[in-house]
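Bit of a strange request maybe. I'm writing a small parser for structure token strings and I need a real example to test against, not something I typed by hand. Could someone generate the tokens for this chain?
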Amino acid sequence: MLPDHITQVRRFNRLVTQRAGALDDHFLGRDRPLGESRVLFEIGPHGADLRDLRARLGLDSGYLSRLVQSLASAGLVTLRSGPEDERVRRADLTPAGLAEVAEMDRRSDQAANAILSPLSESQRERLVAAMTEVHRLLQAAGARIERVDPASRPARWCVTRYYAELAERFEDGFDPGRSIAAGDAEMRPPLGAFLVASVDGEPVACGAVKTIAPDIGSLKRMWVADAARGLGFGRRMLAALEREARALGLTTIRLETNHALAEAIRLYRSSGYAEVAPFNTDPYADHWFEKHLHDA
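Reply from user aminoacidic:
Good idea to test on real output. This should exercise your parser:
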């Protein structure tokens, strides 16, 4: 990492906290520290599971629990067991909590307007565009890639959207039943692995590797959400899957893909995958690739 880059990030952080008003002890809240105000906002009018809040905000469970308990003691939040799992606690705003969030929204709008109003229209457009790009890049920087069970909710969510995209992009649609299968057991250690990339607790990409022969693995379910494209998630997921493959003792990775997935084909070629003769009869495959991991 270049020292100039570190210096600029620190300078940017200092300016943002100052301009946004985060140095105020009661930023956006009447008598509320920033941490409590943010949790109150994230609970929102529809409530939230504490598990989801932890993932979304990246907070330690103990710290989040203290923040929520403080809000509950102030009469702003009620706690109860989740409707689907009694082990998961859920937070909901009281009428007083809803009123405070409405006041926070009003103050937040005022703070944003104070930043934008001194600028010309063209400067506002430039600032908002730059903020949008910074937001996307900060999301990418904070993304986490983790191994999950292929039967888990995030994995199922990703695969469902992966299938929907293939059905939309392939000329004759896509039927998962016709494609070469990848059962849940094949995508669990010691036979395979299923990975999900998430940003603020929301899944944005997935991929899997499964063993198909001694020392040989196959990549499956490589997908990146539209909103996360252009941020390098595909390349990061591919690298993570190769690490999983090595951990499984695999030395060669194979994959098949369709000509409609041009960006995926470019990714594979630029990542050291060589096009080879067909090695299976998947009806949706037009290209077959292989990579020897010891050559990487």
